Amino acid sequence: MAKSKVKAKRLGAALRQSRESAGLSLRDAAKGVGWDFNRLHRIEKGQGPYNPEEISGLLGLYRVTGDRRDRILATVRSLDEPGWWELAGVTKTMGALADYENDAQKITEWAPLLIPGLLQTMDYARSAIGFDPNLDTADIEARLTVRVRRQQILKGDVEYRVFLGLTALKATVGSREILARQLAALLNIGQQDNITLRVVLPEADARGALLGPFSVLEFDEWQPVVDVENLRGTVFLDTEEHTGIYLGVLSQLNAVALGETESMRLIERLKEEVEGSADEQRVAQV
């Protein structure tokens, strides 16, 4: 089984940060453990190879101890362990996202137009995915399977926070009945201690949010990763130069979004309105 490229890249970043914290240049560090300069350079780029004993020696040079040392070495040993996303039918991009989500300690999303995938009900997800005319039934079902599997992380210890635009809460995806059930699901999942839902109203001053939907994944040992969705697909950003912009937008959203309680009351009110309009439509059709 090939090593996880995502995990190897994060491991390389963690080793680079440890070296820099130790005040060593790449060349001095390589000399300190008797390695070729290019070999250490490849390791920090996530290209390996990674040997637990050799990485242990490297951490010793960097004076990395305790929990941080244990976590880095555990990552080295787990590189060959396949994740569920490596199953047939999972696209490279979706597999990378699932890999990131699996290791994240905190995930924060900005969802201005649609309910994010981690919170979607099956009916809502099927309708949202079905908007793509290039997907056949088999493709849609495969993506649904992946989405449901990704949602399992919310049952763990990850801290999940989402800022929802009012449009996302009002957009009819599939039908009014599907939207009503989706809003009910949000009210239910919002009760979990590790999940925070907050609504951003259109009049809120959050101009940075015009960047569009994105999510920020944060980890213990490496820099945050930003998942940006656009018309061309998904892009992962992991350099401070690029992620800083999105972290700044999250700060804006945090300042202007409704509080948790107020947000849940608004979602409840919208659910009741949608249920009422759905009932009226059914009566009109009789």
Automatic annotation (TrEMBL):
CDD domains: HTH_XRE. GO terms for molecular function: DNA binding. Transmembrane segments: none annotated. InterPro entries: Cro/C1-type_HTH, DUF5753, Lambda_DNA-bd_dom_sf. Pfam families: DUF5753, HTH_31. Gene3D superfamilies: lambda repressor-like DNA-binding domains. Residues 15-69 form the HTH cro/C1-type domain. This is HTH cro/C1-type domain-containing protein. It comes from Thermocrispum agreste.
